[in-house]
Design a protein that fits this description.
With 237 residues, this protein is α/β, with parallel strands linked by helices. It has a single domain (2-11, 25-158, 197-235), classed as Rossmann fold (3-Layer(aba) Sandwich). Helix content is 49%, strand content 21%. The protein contains nine helices and seven strands. Strands 3-2-1-4-5-7-6 form a seven-stranded mixed beta sheet, with helices on both faces. This is Class I SAM-dependent methyltransferase. One of its GO terms (biological process) is methylation. Its EC number is 2.1.1.-. InterPro entries: SAM-dependent_MTases_sf.
Length: 237
């Protein structure tokens, strides 16, 4: 499954930024989550942040804009195509990228217990259910004691209204746009399915807590994505 998913993102990388730019809330929601992370690190000089599933760099840009000068942001993504898009942008010192699969990272090389925060936008939904607990445990190992996890994710399980809204928007807007711009709707059909199959917000919060995190919280966004897009926050004890 992960090989197929990587191939989908590699194929769609050239047009991905254009397609997400057509979602008026996409970058705003990333900036909101990045600002929440920055507020939690307000007393940390030169914070070190891992940006997991960094994709083409939109989340990285949101972090760079929110964090103080001198911060380290290291992006990791499964897709070489997405990383190639990220490399096209100009980045300040302290920003770097590498290919990797969350759940199978070289945590010793990355530095266990050395990161102030992990930011993960649209990551855990793309990890098979059997691997999500291990991936969260991996994140916990990378964080310093007292380090923060902020992750943003689509989830409609347990909310029939949100599920109907997500299906309507997916099939009337997202998938047709993917077909026109990318000439291959498979990635966007996958997006629709994966959000419907992902943990409910309550179940994912339980999963985060079971991985050893405390103070697990969630909030949703306004507008049509209310009850669909969620930001989760937690702390490593």
């Amino acid at each position: 499954m992960m090989h197929d998913l990587r191939a989908r993102f590699d194929h769609g990388a050239d047009h991905y930024d254009l397609l997400v730019s057509l979602n008026p809330g996409y970058h705003r929601h990333l900036r909101s989550a990045a600002a929440e992370l920055a507020s939690r690190l307000h007393d940390v000089d030169a914070p070190r942040v891992l940006d997991l599933a960094c994709g083409s760099g939109a989340s990285t840009r949101a972090l760079v804009d929110a964090l103080p000068a001198g911060a380290t942001v290291h992006g990791i993504d499964l897709s070489r195509g997405m990383l190639a898009q990220a490399a096209r942008h100009t980045w300040p010192p302290g920003v770097s990228f590498e290919q990797g699969r969350v759940g199978n990272l070289d945590t010793a090389r990355l530095g266990e217990g050395s990161w102030d925060a992990v930011f993960a936008s649209y990551l855990f939904r793309n990890i098979p259910e059997a691997g999500r607990d291990g991936a969260l445990a991996e994140v916990a190992r990378l964080l310093k004691p007292g380090g923060h996890l902020i992750t943003q994710e689509y989830s409609v399980a347990g909310s029939p209204g949100a599920d109907r809204r997500w299906t309507l928007v997916s099939w009337s807007i997202i998938i047709p746009l993917g077909s026109v711009v990318d000439r291959d709707p498979d990635l966007y059909r996958y997006l629709w399915r994966s959000a419907r199959r992902f943990d409910s917000p309550a179940a994912f919060m339980d999963r985060i807590a079971d991985a050893g995190f405390r103070d697990v919280r969630t909030r949703t966004v306004s507008g049509w994505q209310r009850g669909i897009l969620h930001t989760f926050a937690a702390v490593r004890p």
